[in-house]
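Postdoc handover notes: sequence design on the structure in folder B. Input tokens:
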């Protein structure tokens, strides 16, 4: 199952995304168009403070497409020369001030493959107990929030966390945690 690209026009090239219009031919010969957003690789991190605190670190920032603040896990774009783990650690430090002491890949996701090729690598990170100063990008205004596991579950269940990458990352984290418990018994 595939579609043959007949023509492609790049109609927008931005700092983070580009937009392409494709004319495609489907298997049955039907021609149609596809709008494709191109986006580079990104990372997202389920970040947890060290024991005995064990709370999870979230960020809250205004998201213009929704015109409201959103509570989500730390995330960001991978810079040209970075590897994925390096990008994840950098984003945690920049947005929260916490250094990563241990990091583990949980998986990856495509947020909306019907129109965008963005791939987000998901990590779990243990953090150093004391934060340093943050190093936010010039266009970021981010609040740091701390929540227990039970509160995170409640925030998802009640719809107070609606960010897709955050919910998917939390599911991957919970699956990892359950598998570890099973191995330990």
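Designed sequence:
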């Amino acid at each position: 199952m595939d579609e043959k690209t007949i023509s492609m026009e790049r109609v927008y090239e931005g700092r983070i995304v580009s937009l392409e219009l494709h004319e495609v031919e489907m298997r049955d010969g039907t021609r149609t168009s596809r709008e494709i957003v191109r986006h580079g690789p990104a990372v997202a991190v389920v970040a947890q403070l060290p024991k005995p605190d064990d709370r999870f670190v979230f960020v809250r920032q205004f998201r213009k497409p929704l015109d409201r603040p959103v509570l989500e896990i730390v995330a960001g774009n991978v810079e040209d020369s970075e590897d994925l783990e390096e990008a994840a650690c950098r984003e945690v430090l920049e947005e929260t001030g916490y250094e990563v002491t241990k990091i583990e890949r949980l998986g990856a996701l495509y947020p909306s493959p019907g129109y965008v090729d963005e791939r987000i690598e998901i990590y779990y990170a243990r953090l150093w107990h004391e934060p340093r100063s943050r190093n936010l990008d010039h266009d970021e205004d981010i609040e740091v929030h701390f929540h227990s596991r039970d509160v995170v579950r409640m925030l998802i269940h009640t719809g107070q966390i609606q960010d897709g990458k955050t919910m998917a990352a939390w599911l991957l984290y919970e699956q990892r945690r359950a598998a570890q418990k099973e191995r330990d018994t």
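Context for whoever picks this up: The chain has a mean pLDDT of 96. Don't rerun without checking with the PI first.
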